Amino acid sequence: MTTQDHDDLRLLMQAALDGELDAAGQLEIEKKIAQDPTLAAEWNQLTALRTAIRRALPRGRAPQELRTRLAAEAANEAPRSLRLPPRPSWFALAASVVVSVGLTGALVPQFIADRTPSISETLVFDHMRSLLAARPVDIASTDRHAVKPWFDARLAFSPPVVDLAERGYVLVGGRVDVIDGAPAPALVYQLRNHLISLTALPARLAPSISATSLRGFSLMRWTEQDLVYCAVSDVPNEDLDSFAREFRAKAFGRGQ
Fold first, then answer.
1. Domain count, the chain
2. What does the DSSP assignment read for 167-180?
3. β-pairing, 182-191 with 213-214?
4. Is the pLDDT of residue 129 over 50?
């Protein structure tokens, strides 16, 4: 499959997710997803991201005053609807986009206002962004001997990288996030169709990570030596608990 073919299929998947395909097109893309593990993984990421965004960004409602004014203007323009509307100019199209963006900005929930997010929010938002990206890692490898040196060459500290595949947690790779203004290593594991981001931070930040759930995602943290580890995922809490136990046992010899 060429890069162009893959990009076309990705666009079709997004259209299918939004319900924009006819029945035949929907059936065709579902067949391709079922036959291609790479497409299936991207489909699962898109589905998880849509669910997360819907939880985090509930649909806004225009103020009553605005809705009343628009309804009145529409009523005044009703007779003109019998005529074919003139073709809009590029300036008019651009203006409509500006108005739409302005209205959307006015309706966005207050929690995304201009403010500094907490450490917990930053961890969750970084995980959400990874779900949206073409791939959730900067280095994609199931080999811990490739991921660990990659971190060591770029950062002042890095977590131990362990193989938990036999326990069901498959190493996907690693990436570098920016937490509290500083780069931080994040390991990514996969459990079934879900991803788990495990970020290592200086222990001084531990008191700042107080949330246990946020925007539909669970957070779990623990401290080892001079680092605090925080796992973020939408897996059930018992699976995240199990992941933490398995990681600590393999990396630090902690009893289960």
1. 2
2. GTBEEEEEEEEEET
3. unpaired
4. yes
